[in-house]
């Protein structure tokens, strides 16, 4: 095999991803079908550069695998008057199960191959200090319910991805640290493999901030934004950095730890060991405390997000203490985002998680602190876009990444 | 043409870089020759997957173009006893001219296709407030001298790259802002094209921090480091971020503006419009001022780096004021690098520019502040590697990038 280093100005010859040429070609054809939703064979041949015979042979494999189906007549645009048989993704062919363990809730959702959301469920629960085994057991029950609903809808769930709030060592299969859960060195791959229902594809897992950014890319505003940084604020604060449609992960997969950037040297001690981290100023608990809301009591009394709903209620009523708490958090977040802009130079910043419902009150102070910290080097600063997915982005990204795995390599589902 | 989006887990089908298949294959063969320095045809066929006939045809083109030459017998390793004729890069075939405009000096160097340094020259000069046209005129004289020396050595210089200390809009061909030079919206592409001696390839230019990182990658410690962040401290402070052997540039090419991260909110006003930027605490002038050395006087009296040499002299003699100035700068830099580690998660950090000669005194305080700011999330922090290239990295990177352009697409030199 060749071992060619990527050149400075381009990606050079990339890594070989697919076992055989046929596997790669199946992926190219399926990718076009997913993009177009409905497309004719003639147009598929045009888009991929394959002959019509090759397209037909590849389609036959995809139809056999249940991933694609044919039917209906399609007129392709005005300039191409000739009708053809439509090829489309078989929604029920392969669905993805997204799961999420977060500090104060669990979530599950099912997304089909056309990335339509078919099921969603969120359960509030305080996981701080609970053993990982017990939490995975609760997650398994949520997964069973989701699979039951999928099966009821005639969906074939191919695999699952789990979103986790911590630093992951995916090479060793360990969660290295989740300061807000109080977890360290958890053999998370083994726990998930053994604890969750078995599916055709092996269970995968990823950092919740990364998956939230992908959720925004696939189900939210992300596709229009170019390179963006997605801020996922929950009890912890993380950033998912999307560059060229991919998540930027760093050398060890620990990139985007926005919440542990120090904004107040010598400030409050953080679970990460440092002092004055952004999380201590702008994380959910810090904001609720400053606003005079007892976080734990509200969380356990209501559904996930209940405490934020209570805060939003006070904000809407003009409560001074609540407003000043949110302004203070916004100022700290904006100052940190100035560093993000100086280092990453994104096209846009997405305010996700709790910063989405808090945006009407937080955004002005975030913008002001960002502008102050970024100076006048740039003609324009990246816009702050408010996520419509809020806290739901990570579990959507998790489910979507299963669909993505299948689209990128449909041969994964042909083995049986 | 296909328009395939890169998949989440891989690079998918990359952009087509070369005009024809032959052009691409020429690049693959030349790349292998550059990597191996000396290699046989048989091994070239093995490494590229081409037949020996194809290899011979491609070699004939490269030899004709003067980029490659054959000669001498090579025994390829112990297991392959059979000798073959060696193919190697023709050092004189195509050289690159590197040029640099910085705040208080100009530099030029020539590097051959095998990335051997054949010429270097640095001239101290204070460019603050001088018109860009006049500075480019001085640079042209330096370039002429470099080309004279190259020609004297029998080298054919194919192109030039210029390192510039500012934010570049390479699409429009403008230098957007160079706060330390006091330049804004300079039509730098036009100025350089018209002002510099004409070569076979068009003149290119890049941010000095990016080129310093590439200089470190190609001529310094970088090749061993994986993904790294190179800190180039001069009057301004920048970072070049190397990910997978490429410079990370951001959405508009403005990534890595380390010097304008705020470390002391409300601190000294910076040329960028913000207050308390890292440059105001750890830039060359800030350190010299704090150390009691009058920056401008020393600079104009001595060669570039003369003021830093004077500082090093005082540090070596145990001067308290100098030592505390450097410790203070190190603390600010270390705190900023903690944010870099949290966001980028690099394998290593390289201390370049003035931080290289200052490292014996600055490194302990940089390390301490980095550890304090980064907390205990990670098992190990990226090591701080001291650059041996110091301030010379950017101009080396500039010259090397010409060699890189030729290696990535030798067909560029076949047109004539």
Automatic annotation (TrEMBL), chains A, B:
Gene3D superfamilies: 3.30.420.40, Winged helix-like DNA-binding domain superfamily/Winged helix DNA-binding domain. InterPro entries: ATPase_NBD (IPR043129), HTH_MarR-typ (IPR000835), ROK (IPR000600), WH-like_DNA-bd_sf (IPR036388), WH_DNA-bd_sf (IPR036390). Residues 28-69 form the HTH marR-type domain. CDD domains: ASKHA_ATPase_ROK_BsXylR-like. SUPFAM superfamilies: Actin-like ATPase domain (SSF53067), Winged helix' DNA-binding domain (SSF46785). PANTHER family: BIFUNCTIONAL UDP-N-ACETYLGLUCOSAMINE 2-EPIMERASE_N-ACETYLMANNOSAMINE KINASE (PTHR18964:SF149), ROK (REPRESSOR, ORF, KINASE) FAMILY (PTHR18964). Belongs to the ROK (NagC/XylR) family. This is ROK family transcriptional regulator. It comes from Pendulispora rubella.
